[in-house]
Specification:
This protein has helices at residues 19-28, 51-57, 78-83, 99-108, 153-172, 189-194, 204-207, 217-230; strands spanning 6-9, 33-39, 64-70, 88-91, 112-117, 135-139, 177-181, 199-202. By secondary structure, the chain is of the alpha/beta class. It has one domain (6-230): TIM Barrel (Alpha-Beta Barrel), CATH 3.20.20. The structure holds D-xylitol-5-phosphate and zinc ion.
Amino acid sequence: MSKQFRIAPSILSANFAKLGQEITDVIASGADIIHFDVMDNHYVPNLTIGPLVCQAIRPLTEAIIDVHLMVKPVDRIIPDFAKAGANIITFHPEGSEHIDRSLSLVRDQGCKTGLVFNPATPLDYLDHVMDKIDMVLLMSVNPGFGGQKFIMQALEKLKLARAKIDAYTEKTGREIWLEIDGGVNVQNIADIARAGADTFVAGSALFGAGKDSDPHRYDTIVAELRAALAKV
Ligand code: DX5
Ligand code: ZN
């Protein structure tokens, strides 16, 4: 059975001086989703981009914008990202005092929802809110920075998450995506897919590739990622 796999470039590793062009180029290369990392120097020790940047890039692409909130608290900022054109908004359970309420808030704003699990965060948080979740995002690095090494333990966790999602889909008929984030590259993406992921964030592996001046630099790496996935 051939599965649908989605590639989600993390713009954290893009050239921010030419962000618009980077987005146009990476989508033209065949990537599916823009992964948008929001860090607040509080929940994670780094500071990145907010709703204004999301709003600025929204007219450049029809691709899904997948906003990964690494912020605490989350509720105040969720409506701002919805208005800025986000399609999916994910957050970490540790970033919300009331997870069910924050998920409802995302849905009420017309966006798809997701919960994000750090390497040591248990999947139990899913158990009572599956009906309110459209995507599960597993971190395969500790959040805060691009360019880190894939934590192998994430493969076992992916299998557990896959089993939970499959059992839920079997029961309800509703699909939930399983995204992996951190250290994904051409060498490991097939193993990650075999463990159960269907959506793959890639930051440094993609934006770190090739020469800045070559507009086709992303074509090769996206094709390599797809070729690796085709063997799964
Ligand atoms: C890390 C971010 C990731 C990161 C991925 O906190 O959530 O999305 O940008 O970058 P790579 O692919 O370089 O690990
Ligand atoms: Zn991310």
